[in-house]
Amino acid sequence: MQVSTIIRGSALMAATRLQAVRKSLGYSADAVIGMLHQRASMLGESVMSRASLKTKLSRWENGHEAVSLPVYQRLFRDIYGRTNEELGFPPEETDVEAAELRARLGAARTVDSATIDLFRRQVDHARHVDRRFGGISLLDQLRNLIKQMEDLLRYGPQRGQREALAAVLVEASTLAGWESLDRNATNQA
User: Where are the alpha helices (DSSP H) in the chain?
Assistant: First the structure.
């Protein structure tokens, strides 16, 4: 995986794409190590020490070892703003189930008091509609709302928000139960 490149009119030889990208960006190896640590900290990831990373970076950039761990591939993509192909990494495996789980976990982490207030207002709105017009079409809407809240609870919103979201879920489920009884659907209630 030998790569040579000419950058800003001066010839710079790079052993790998990873090294070529670093040099094209004008980063020193020490700066990259600092950025790797900083980005890993932001993501909550553990990485090797600065001394170990200095050795590894040299081995990776000179083609003696491949950057095989996904965490390091991601860190390089993040700090360099390049794709796996541009960095000389193998294509990223797409695991649909893992991507869906990451998306659900991410959504659950966004639950805040404003989100809970929105759900609470939707349940209150459903109550008002039920009192005014009856709940013929309301039950399906409530079930969708309940499913949304159950999914968020399943993937763990922050402490404090979890209890508040569960309380709104209880209110929505209770209202859905009464709606089912009004339809004479005792099994659904």
Answer: 17-25, 29-43, 50-61, 70-80, 84-87, 96-109, 113-133, 138-154, 161-182
